[in-house]
Every structure is written in C-alpha cells, then in structure tokens.
UniProtKB/TrEMBL annotation:
This is DUF2167 domain-containing protein. Residues 1-19 form the signal peptide. It comes from the Bacteria. The keyword Signal applies. The lineage of its organism: Bacteria, Pseudomonadati, Bacteroidota, Cytophagia, Cytophagales. It holds the Pfam family DUF2167. Keywords: Signal. InterPro entries: DUF2167_membr.
Length: 311
C-alpha cells in the first residue's frame, strides 16, 4: 500500500494499535464510510471542454476521458480531502472515472511558476544519471530536517521514467520513484513542465509506482491539451524585455524551482493523502472526517494536531 494512503497515519493512530485488533465481520463500517465518501465527492463540480486557466496564463482543451476541477475546489481537495499543508493551484485534471477519494485515484495538479524564461540549451548535455545521484544526496540531507519536524524519512529510489525534453513542444517530463519511511509500496511522482515566455506551467501527479503505465500513457494527450495564452508562449520571448530564469532544464528536474522556500518544502508540497478502509478502523475514519466535519486531517507520516512530535 503506498505511502500517504494510510488512514491510521491520517488519524494519528499508531500502527501497533491495530496489530491486536480482531478482524471485524460487520460490513456496517464500510457502508457508512462509503456513504460519507460519496457525499463529499458529490459536492464537487467538474468541467469539461475548453478551460481558461486563472490569471489568463493559458487554456486547456480537455482530452476525452478527463475532467477539470477549478482552483477553489482544488484547494478544498488538496487541503481538506488530502490533508496537504499547502493546497493552492490553478486547478486539477482528473481521469473521469475516478474522484479524489476513490481507491487508486490520482490527478494532475496544475500550477504556474512565474520564474522567467527557462533556457533549454543545456537539455542535450545533461547526464541524468549523475543528476539523480545529486538529487538522492539532497533528499538524504533533507531527511534530518524532516525528522526534526516529526516526519518519516524519504528515499529517492530512482527514475521511474528518465527525464525527456521535447524541444519541438518545449515540454519536459520525468517521473521519480520514492520510498516514504518503511512503506511497502513506493510512491510515483510524475512531473510535466511546459515552458513559456515568463514562466513554467507545472503538472504534478502522485500515485503508486504500480500506476506508472496508467499515468504515462496519458502524457501525450495531456501535454497537447494545454497551451499558453497569446504573448506568453515560449517563442514569444524577447531578450530585450524579458527576465531569464537563473537555471535551465537541469534545475527544473533537480527541483531548484522551489529553492527559495527550501528543499523540505519541495518534499512536502502536494504529496497526496488518500483514503483506505482498514480492518477495524471505523474509529479512525470518524476522527478523520470529524464528528461534525470540523476536524482537520494531519499530514500522513507526520505529527497530528494533538501529537507532540518530540514525544
């Protein structure tokens, strides 16, 4: 089971507390859980067809099989449903067969980083195997900061899909395989970067490594469905007027895009927290949803609101 899908982590219940719990025979908990999930997902209103992104950055012409959730509702999903500490985005792109609380769900979170024009002249010269070693070292170094904050360590296992830059489309995409703590299933982080005149459109999908083929097959259609607004496209760059980013393709892959807020923030941002019905976990489910819908979920793998990380 992938990290960040553990309901007991969301609820702050130690894993050991379930070790001695008899397996329940009643289906009542599962039915009540599903009813709550259905009621929450029914509050979401998706769009299809042609979507204008906030701030007139660009537009999406959604391909068949996908639907879009606007920025406000995406914030609700990211922070309230999935428990992320920062949920701001331009929106989310979901497969039309899965909602945010469905088993095996995943989505592209759409963001825009106004960092300037990213030069791509280093794309052909990057040794991505060497870059991976540097990223693994950075991830390991950041684990002390995670531990100090009460979170489990993260291991960058390797490339799930090696970085590839399409110069004709000015699109970069790659996927990382990560291991959170002692999780038995590794996490997939698929990254897509569309380069523009004044910044980069970021699409990030998080799921389990077993979903790599499912996510990867959608990349061509998703990439071609998104475009920058007129005047903001990569070819519109004016060297006499426009700012150039401080790093190139290698910096995007290495995560330098978030260097200003630190590598720890990069590890925390938008890690999906989904739901899984565990045996005997109805109490944990009630705690997650809150008796009156007021209790906030905790970030999986980290301290809960009533838990001292130093304990």
């Amino acid at each position: 089971m992938k990290k960040l899908l553990l309901l007991l982590a969301l609820a702050g219940v130690p894993a050991a507390s379930f070790a001695a719990t008899p397996t329940p025979t009643s289906t009542d908990s599962a039915a009540r859980y599903q009813a709550k999930v259905d009621s929450l997902q029914a509050t979401l209103h998706y769009q299809t067809g042609r979507i204008t992104l906030p701030e007139s950055v660009g537009e999406i012409t959604l391909p068949a099989g996908f639907r879009y959730l606007d920025a406000a509702q995406s914030t609700q999903v990211l922070t309230k449903f999935w428990g992320n500490p920062n949920g701001e985005s331009l929106g989310m792109i979901f497969p039309d067969s899965k909602g945010p609380l469905d088993a095996g769900s995943w989505a592209f979170v759409v963001e825009y980083e106004k960092m300037g024009y990213v030069k791509d002249d280093d794309a052909q010269d990057i040794d991505y195997d060497d870059l991976l070693k540097d990223m693994q070292a950075d991830t390991e170094e950041a684990n002390q900061e995670r531990a100090d904050a009460g979170y489990e360590p993260v291991t960058l296992v390797g490339w799930a899909a090696k970085p590839y830059y399409d110069k004709s489309l000015n699109v970069l995409h790659w996927a990382k395989e990560l291991k959170f703590g002692q999780a038995t299933e590794n996490t997939l982080n698929y990254n897509v970067r569309l380069l523009g005149r004044k910044g980069v459109l970021n699409l990030n999908a998080v799921g389990s490594v077993s979903q790599l083929a499912e996510v990867r097959q959608t990349i061509p259609a998703v990439i071609t469905s998104i475009s920058f607004s007129k005047g903001l496209q990569y070819a519109d760059f004016n060297p006499e007027l426009d700012e150039v980013a401080a790093y190139g393709i290698g910096g995007l892959v290495a995560g330098k895009v978030l260097a200003k807020v630190g590598f720890f923030a990069l590890l925390l941002k938008f890690w999906k927290i989904g739901l899984a019905l565990l045996a005997g976990a109805w109490t944990a489910i009630r705690r997650f949803f809150g008796a009156k819908g007021t209790e906030e979920p905790a970030l999986a793998g980290g301290p809960t609101p009533d838990t001292d990380p130093e304990a």
